[in-house]
Amino acid sequence: MAVADKSHPNLDVLPEWPTETIAVLVTTDPAPHAIPVSWPVRAGDKRILLSLRHNRGSLTRLRARPEVALVVLAGGDVALCARGSARIVREDVDGTGEYAAVAIDVDAIDDHRQGAFAIIEGIRRTVVDPNELHALERRAAILRELAG
Known about the structure:
This protein is α+β, with helices and mostly antiparallel strands. The protein is built from 2 helices and 7 strands.
């Protein structure tokens, strides 16, 4: 279980964020590893779903140490760090064998918004390969179905 960070206020529930949000997932082995994650899905007040590629080390690390943190900086003034336990909920999220669906059961949500700043837009990127964009949209739709 995550220990509350007393230097930041906590949120009781996850806020909504735009579909195209890019977040940063932190896993450990025991050193921390941070990677960008495309289009995490809010799956409830304290649950997040995301897809992770099998050929990366993140799945191996979270299998060994399920405690993770996900930093979300998104439009609508969303600035948070969700801390909790990750687990694989589907080994093959979309039938390609490339990505697994991962659920983060959130124990604590650190609110990093500041009165002097507002996040208008989060990290933005353009997917230049139409096939990759279609695949990403498909994975996100499947994650939303799993969240339902």
